[in-house]
TrEMBL record:
It holds the Pfam family PDZ_2. Belongs to the peptidase S16 family. One of its GO terms (biological process) is proteolysis. This is endopeptidase La. The lineage of its organism: Bacteria, Bacillati, Bacillota, Bacilli, Bacillales. The active site is at S241, K286. Its EC number is 3.4.21.53. It comes from Guptibacillus hwajinpoensis. Keywords: Hydrolase, Membrane, Protease, Serine protease, Transmembrane, Transmembrane helix.
Length: 342
């Protein structure tokens, strides 16, 4: 190999190394970009549900760990947002644990949406609270190594636990010097452990003097039986932000009136069993996704400036979509009620 060939080879090797560095080396950031608006009658099927002329659609954002190219590109694109890794994943959480946590939260969101819709439509639903699902354990705190993600807490000392509120109220009665016996189910096996209490690490911003066992994001595990039956297929979509749109699609199928009024209606927002609509992240990207998918109306939560951010994005991309603020499920129904059919 002559000197010219060696130099040419060296240059190409360096180019490959640089390209690989920019492409395959992940940074401690995640990048979110506009996703899609997905028609919900492809996802939700109520037995004997009514037909509609329009569509209710959930909106998504794409989330992935950022490489150097994505990091640089995000500096010049308003709708590519960089988020520090610690704000996405909990400390010590693996990718698999994060993904499972998002699926668990989605399942809980589906349950809340179903409860809201069936009760609003006055249809048959039986609700059973089974305990509290562990969705995170803080490294170094007393529960670390004793409780795991997916454990279902059913009793604390002599008190049976059915809901998150009951668990937090009970644990809040203990001091740093005490211990507690926690009974739980793990993959079908009943277990019990003794756990102490300690102060929370500084990043968790808890009130001064507050102690705990080290469980984060506990979620009430609720099972429901409905009449008519319902089937929801989310294709591994995670997170709670589709709650409002789930409730509207279910309600639409349960009732005779076509609440879409013939429009393509996208939106976002969490929902609890009381029908309150909560804020979500990435709403600007969801406005872009909904507009790209042909939505005519977008339902946006009011809380945490979600609606203001949605309006800002809508004006920026010059969409003709109507942006509608909602605080509750009933707000959405009231808006749809006065909407003239296409």
């Amino acid at each position: 190999m002559n000197r010219g060939t060696k130099k040419f080879t060296f240059i190409w090797v360096m180019i490959i190394i640089v390209v690989a560095a920019f492409t395959f080396i992940n940074l401690p950031y995640y990048v979110t970009t506009p996703g899609e608006a997905k028609e919900l009658d492809d996802v939700i099927n109520v037995d004997g549900g009514s037909e509609d002329k329009g569509e209710f659609m959930l909106t998504t954002v794409r989330v992935g760990q950022a490489n150097l190219i994505q990091y640089v590109w995000a500096q010049f694109n308003e709708y590519h947002e960089l988020i520090p890794e610690e704000l996405i994943k909990r400390e010590g959480e693996t990718d698999e644990q994060y993904h499972q946590r998002q699926l668990d939260v989605m399942a809980n969101s589906q349950t809340s949406a179903t409860i809201v819709a069936y009760q609003a439509a006055d249809k048959g639903i039986e609700i059973t609270n089974n305990g509290v699902l562990v969705t995170g354990v803080i490294d170094g705190m007393p529960a670390d190594g004793k409780l795991e993600i997916g454990d279902l807490i059913t009793r604390v000392d002599d008190k049976n636990i059915k809901t998150t509120e009951e668990l937090l109220d009970k644990l809040g009665t203990y001091s740093k010097t005490e211990t507690v016996n926690i009974a739980f189910d793990r993959e079908g096996n009943k277990k019990e452990v003794e756990v102490g209490f300690s102060s929370f690490p500084e990043p968790y911003n808890t009130e001064k003097g507050k102690v705990g066992v080290g469980i984060t994001g506990p979620v009430t595990s609720t099972s429901i039986e409905t009449d008519p039956t319902i089937d929801i297929k989310t294709d591994q979509i995670g997170g709670p932000s589709a709650g409002l749109m789930f409730s509207l699609e279910i309600y639409n199928q349960l009732t005779k009136e076509d609440w879409t009024k013939g429009y393509e209606i996208a939106g976002t927002g969490t929902i609890n069993e009381e029908g309150e609509v909560g804020p979500i992240g990435g709403i600007k990207q969801k406005i872009v996704a909904a507009d790209s998918s042909g939505a005519e109306i977008f339902l946006a939560p009011v809380a945490h400036s979600n609606y203001d951010d949605a309006m800002e994005a809508a004006e920026d991309i010059k969409t003709e979509m109507k942006i509608v603020p909602v605080e509750t499920f009933q707000d959405a129904i009231d808006y749809l009620k006065q909407l003239k059919a296409e």
